[in-house]
Amino acid sequence: MWITAISSVGTGPAAVVPCERGAGVSISLELGGEFFAAEGRDCFGAFQELREELEGLGISLLCAGARTDAYPSPMLREATRGRSVYLLRMHRVARRTCDIFDPAPVSKVGTIASQEAYYRKWRAGTKLDTPIWRLVDFFLEIRERLR
Questions:
Q1: Can you tell me the distance from the alpha carbon of 25 to that of 130, in angstroms, rounded to the nearest whole number?
Q2: Rounded distance, CA 36 to CA 87, Å?
Q3: Which of 47, 105, 126, 139 is deepest in the core (most CB within 10 A)?
């Protein structure tokens, strides 16, 4: 499938191939003759790993999984192998989902850090303070500290 990538030198098409491998998922991306790959426990995890590598090179992917206001719940990740995200609105319960590879405008795309910050702010504003969400926050904090 094709998605759009943007960098300081412009925009261009990128070929992306998600592939399930046993218990995990790998994503391969070809952009301008260069190849990138990442693995994760599900598609969203692999996508985040790929984004992390690309962010270091100044490259953003213009798709829903990179939107600042998009994030999967643990249940959605399990049900779709991380292929879907919720489109979040402050102080509203998440209902609208989309595929992480659906196109997104550049104005909606951000860094992994801005996406995780928006997610935390959304969670705090929607009063989703339950044990499973506290566990999700715990792992997000650990990931942030390990960077």
A1: 28
A2: 27
A3: 47
